[in-house]
Amino acid sequence: MKNPSIVFAHGLWADGSCFSKLIPTLQAEGHEVIAAQNGLDTLKGDVAAVHRALGRVSSPAILVGHSYGGTVITAAGTDNRVTGLVYICALAPDADETSQSLQEKFPRTDVFGHIEVADNRIWLKPSGIACFAGDLPEQEQKLVWATQGVPDADLFNQKLEGTAWRSKPSWYIVGKNDRTVHPDLERFVAKRMGATIYEVESSHVPMLSNPKLVIDVIRTAANA
Q: Is the CA virtual torsion 108, 11, 189, 156 positive or negative?
C-alpha cells in the first residue's frame, strides 16, 4: 500500500520553511510532501491554499498544522482526501469559535507583549522571538524572525464552516514551555478532539527544536 501524503500548514510569523527539518526525512521514507504557503490574508484563502496543495499530492493525505495552521486544517480537513490530522502547538476551534475567541478563554501569553500592528498587519518584534522559539540557538531564532509571515490584523476573527477533528482521527503535540499558544489551551483542545496526545519540553516550535519527536508522531498518524 502506498504511503499517505503529508501536507503541512504553517501559522503566524512563519512560512513553509518552518517544516524544513521534517520534510527530507518524510520524503526519504516514501511520502509525497508539500507545505502550503499561507498568505495569512484571510482564513478562506489559507484553507484554499491547503486544498490546492492536496491537489498536488496523492490521496490519502495527512494534514499537519502548526499554531494558527491548526485552525486552517480544522476547516480544510473535512476534504475527503484527508484521513488524519496532526496538530503541533495548534489552535483547533469548534464550530462556534474563532481563533480569537478560543484564545480568549485562556491566559494571555508572553508573545503578545512583543507585537506591533503596522500597515494593518501584526508583526512580531525582535524582542518577541524568545517567546516564540526560545529553545533554538540564537542564529536559528534570528532566521525564524527574519522569515516571518505577517498576518492580517483581522485574521483571528475569521470563521469558516467545517470542524474536521470531529470526524477524523487526530494526534496532538503539546509544547509544555510554549509562550505563544498557552499550553493549557493546547491540552484543552487536544482532549476535546479525543486526540492521541504527546507532551514535549518545548517552545512553540517543536518541529524545529525537537524534529525527531514530531517526525515520530507524523509517522504514527501515517501508519494508522
A: positive
- In angstroms, the CA 156 to CA 213 distance is 29
Cell reading at 180: 505563544
Cis peptide upstream of residue 206 (ω within 30 degrees of 0): no
Residue 62: phi and psi, rounded to 5, are -100, 130
Q: What are the cell numbers at 201?
A: 519540553
> Do residues 176 and 201 lie in contact, with contact meaning Cβ atoms separated by under 8 Å?
yes
Question: Which residue from 131, 65, 68 is spatially nearest to 100, judged by alpha carbons?
Answer: 68
Classify 26 as helix, strand or coil.
helix
Residues 6+ apart with CB under 8 A from 74: 65, 85, 91, 92, 93, 162, 163, 164, 165
For the segment 173-200, what is each residue's pLDDT rounded down to a tens digit? Answer: 999 999 999 999 999 999 999 999 999 9
Residue 124: beta bridge partners?
115
Q: What is the 3-state secondary structure (H, E, C) of 109-132?
A: CHHHHCEEEECCEEEECHHHHHHH
Cell digits for 133? Answer: 522559539
Q: Quick one: pLDDT at residue 1?
A: 58
State which H helix or E strand residue 186 sits in. helix 183-192
Q: Confidence class of residue 93 from pLDDT cuts 50, 70 and 90?
A: very high
User: Cα separations (Å) of 211 from 25, 38, 82, 220?
Assistant: 10, 21, 23, 14
